[in-house]
Amino acid sequence: MATPGTCTNVLAVFALISALLIGFYGAGSGVTWPVVFLTAVTGLGSLWLRRRDGRTERRVCVLVLGDLGRSPRMQYHALSLSKHGYNVTFVGFLDTKPHQEVLREEKIKLVPIAEVKGLRVGPKILTYVTKVILQCLQLLYVLLRMETQSHILMQNPPGLPGIAVACLVCVLRGSRFVIDWHNYGYTIMALSHGDTHPVVRLAKWYEHFFGPLASCNLCVTNAMKDDLQKNWGIKATTLYDCPPSIFRETPLKLQHGLFMRLANKYPQFQSRGCEEDKQVERSVFSECDLCEEALKLRAERPALLLSSTSWTEDEDFSVLLKALEDYEGFIKAGASLPSLVCVITGKGPQKEYYRKLIDSLQLEHVQICTPWLEAEDYPVLLGSADLGVCLHKSSSGLDLPMKVVDMFGCCLPVCAIHFHCLHELVKHEENGLIFRDAQELAEQLKSLLSEFPGSGGQLGAFRRTLRRSRGPGWDENWDQNVLPLLSAP
Description:
Layout: H1 4-27, H2 33-49, E1 59-67, H3 72-83, E2 87-93, H4 100-104, E3 108-112, H5 124-145, E4 151-156, H6 162-173, E5 176-181, H7 185-193, H8 198-210, E6 216-219, H9 222-232, E7 236-238, H10 252-263, E8 280-282, E9 286-289, E10 294-297, E11 303-308, H11 318-332, E12 340-345, H12 351-360, E13 366-369, H13 377-382, E14 387-390, H14 402-409, E15 414-417, E16 432-435, H15 438-448, H16 457-468, H17 474-481, H18 483-487
Parallel strand pairs: 1-2, 1-4, 2-3, 4-5, 5-6, 6-7, 11-12, 11-14, 12-13, 14-15, 15-16
Antiparallel strand pairs: 8-9, 9-10
Helix pairs in contact: 1-5, 1-6, 2-5, 5-6, 7-8, 11-15
């Protein structure tokens, strides 16, 4: 662990290098040295004018260099901090609306930042360098403008350049810096660039160099905790993802309401093969007699299979699509199995690629839907599903899929693809099944759905196990593991 003096010197060098790069970039973009100098002086002046006051210890900045609406763990951090009386400045991209609880909480102030792109001309490395420089300036501007915070709590990844900038601000302002390690950024970059790419190697050096400068660290698994200690010299506290109270089995009335709303947008949820009856409201899964206000799930309904994703390289959805083709083959060969509606939720860079693959499939008994759900509807759909599928393969082998945590909160059994530390969450043949390829997943779908819609068999047993084994929720887990770090001297 670096000493405070070393930390300050390192960050001073970093600041100097950044200033030189800014000057270099500015020289080619019409920004003159006097402007850069004036900006630096103004920023430092505002920094020293914003001294600590009596309320500093009750202020925390939660920082995400990503979409706040798709950062559930950091939203839960913000809510937990506010429940304990902290005023939270929640900084990140606002591409997707956060959960209503976050928006309603008076002690949480959202500070949106824009995603910078860098230069659009010249070699890719120049684009990347200018993007990093501009993001450094943006973060310095945002963090130095706000009131002095007792802590900056930052998600990693993404951590470049946020870790170094937040570290610098914390040293200058006397704040404490906390990193919540969800994964390693360089391993994610290696998925698309390869381990030996110069940018990947630089990112690895960056995380190894700046990561240990944090005052304290959180991580998502014991495997990551051990790796941070052994290979990085970082002592971290494991904070397992736990589902908040909004993730639970959905009452039938809420299920039907969601199914009807989705039926207005997506034909996969619309009732088929029924005569029109104005007294009965139907989706493909449920029906409601409007006169008697009687609700029920339809006996002939398809099974609802759910998967959620960020559509990135660490999730190969061709595995699921091949398994669904095999499942279709089982039915055509005479197997007594239900039809499937497979819902894949989420946004991400590879969504259009997979949508084209989905459109090319010729399936009769399997329908695939790829909606984007509001934050309030996602837990309702999870709590209404019959089976979950997770294709998350950790780039480092050290993080766990939060989507499975949410599914388990809804007592939804899961089939999950194998990777190194998955056993910390999914217990094979106890609360779900682990598969290694599309063929094994198809066989698992066949086995688990063979008695659908009955509650017997392995699928029903998994659900009963999940109901019995609900552990502590997010609030209790957070209070036990994070609150003492914030209150420590």
